[in-house]
Amino acid sequence: MTASAQSGAELLRAAALRLTDAGVEGAERDAQILFLHALGLPRHRLNEALTTPPEPEAAARFEAAIAARTARQPVSQITGRRAFWMHDFEVTRDTLDPRAETELLVETGLEAPFLRVLDMGTGTGAILLSLLAERPGATGIGSDISDAALAVARRNAARIGTAVAGRAEFILSDWYEAIPGQFDLIVSNPPYIALAEMPGLSPEVRDWEPWGALTDHGDGLTAYRRIAEGAAARLAPGGRIAVEIGYEQGPAVAALFAEAGFGHVEIRQDLGQRDRVILAHI
């Protein structure tokens, strides 16, 4: 039986086995996501699609998607999108995949009012755009050293709509260098993985996501030193700064902000009870 003559259920079972053999965790879940993506169907139509053979073009798209996943390409890169906070965001190989634990950074930023926000290392723009969507009166800047990432962020802003896109500006900048003005809130999910830790990452991260957004090619703290050193001058009176951290970096990053003159520094934990965010203000 040819691939295009197989029922959806048969194709799905075979694909899940291939993903399992390739070492993919959650193989059945990923196969379903990619199957629906290939067919262009919402999840509630999965059972219906399993009973009949898909069209040859859809079967070919599914085969290509499964081949990519067996090579350990992340699902979000294959489908081109990732759900984060309230929206779906475009994801490419030029950006980090927005992760659920990063939503704690958004939650922390929303704890107090702000009118002006800066998101450094914006990538997809997910953090900045999520914050602005929740605060209709606020404006913000997303910065990155990657033109390609900024292009993705601008497309994500346009996709969300002018109500948010009209309040977001994206700037090519190495941390604070090209950033004008002061801000009520600064946020960042910087590259914090030490170079020595990179070989131990999952293939989905190590082989497919941009290293420049993952590691400082040093001890994992270089970005925090730059951010902490320049933050006080860029914060408006009463302003706050929140950064995502690796789960073992809490004390070290908190110390950097204390040394930079921040009198109030908190370590916030994610749902897994791991250190995830540093919140600081003068």
Name the features.
single chain; 282 residues; alpha/beta; Helicase, Ruva Protein, domain 3; Rossmann fold; 2 domains; 7-stranded mixed sheet; two-stranded antiparallel sheet; 13 helices; 9 strands; 41% helix; elongated; EC 2.1.1.297
Number of domains: 2
Helices, by number, come to 13
Question: Strand portion, in percent?
Answer: 15-25%
Order of the strands making up the biggest sheet: 5-4-3-6-7-9-8
CATH architecture of the largest domain: 3-Layer(aba) Sandwich
Mean pLDDT: 96
Count the E strands.
9
- Largest sheet features: 7 strands, mixed
Question: What does this molecule look like?
Answer:
With 282 residues, the protein is α/β, with parallel strands linked by helices. It has two domains: 3-71, Helicase, Ruva Protein, domain 3, CATH 1.10.8; 95-281, Rossmann fold. The chain contains 13 helices and nine strands. Strands 5-4-3-6-7-9-8 form a seven-stranded mixed sheet, sandwiched between helices. β8 (264-269) and β9 form a beta hairpin. The radius of gyration is 21 Å and the shape is elongated. The N and C termini lie far apart (68 Å). The model has no long low-confidence stretch (mean pLDDT 96). It holds the Pfam family PrmC_N. GO terms for molecular function: nucleic acid binding; peptide chain release factor N(5)-glutamine methyltransferase activity. Residues 10-80 form the Release factor glutamine methyltransferase N-terminal domain.
